[in-house]
Amino acid sequence: MESAPFLTGQFLLAMPGIGDPRFERAVIAMCAHDADGALGIGIGETIDGLGLHDLLRQFDIDPGASPDRAVHFGGPVEPRRGFVLHTPDWSGQDTVDVGGRWALSGTIDVLRAIAEGEGPSRWLVALGYAGWGEGQLDAEMTRHGWFNTPGDARLLYDVEADARWASGFASAGIDPRLLSNAAGKA
């Protein structure tokens, strides 16, 4: 029996002309997708003027020797809720393995560990998430809007946020400059 085409551990790339300005050129790291819905973290855009050290100070955590990296705009849902996408070499009280490709943590313990130099070896921080209800993403995938690509963790850690959209398409052999912003009709 063939399993359903769930997208956990993959990336969603917004197609040109997706029709929702919040997702224009979006790159979403899909962290959960099943029959009940889906959750992803945006990794293609950072929040101007907000770095990790600012976030740590809001929680009264000494930044220590942690690098002051930009914080990503994870999505429009719960924009004050934080998430850390990271390598699976660290695990905390709520860490979730994402398809064996990366891990997701959403509690303050991962921020403390990063500040103390004892966290995951590679990570990125985001505020907010993209969420879909039961069957919603499955329906969206049948229309012009999203393109999914394998979840190569190098896109998370080795590519700058503003280059991830084009890089994601390039990894699938697609030049995004050649994409149309309209769906075809057969």
UniProtKB/TrEMBL annotation:
Species of the source: Sphingomonas hengshuiensis
SUPFAM superfamilies in alphabetical order: VC0467-like
Pfam families, A to Z: DUF179
Family stated for the protein in its record: Belongs to the UPF0301 (AlgH) family.
Transmembrane segments: none
A GO CC annotation given for this chain: cytosol
Protein's recorded name: UPF0301 protein TS85_06365
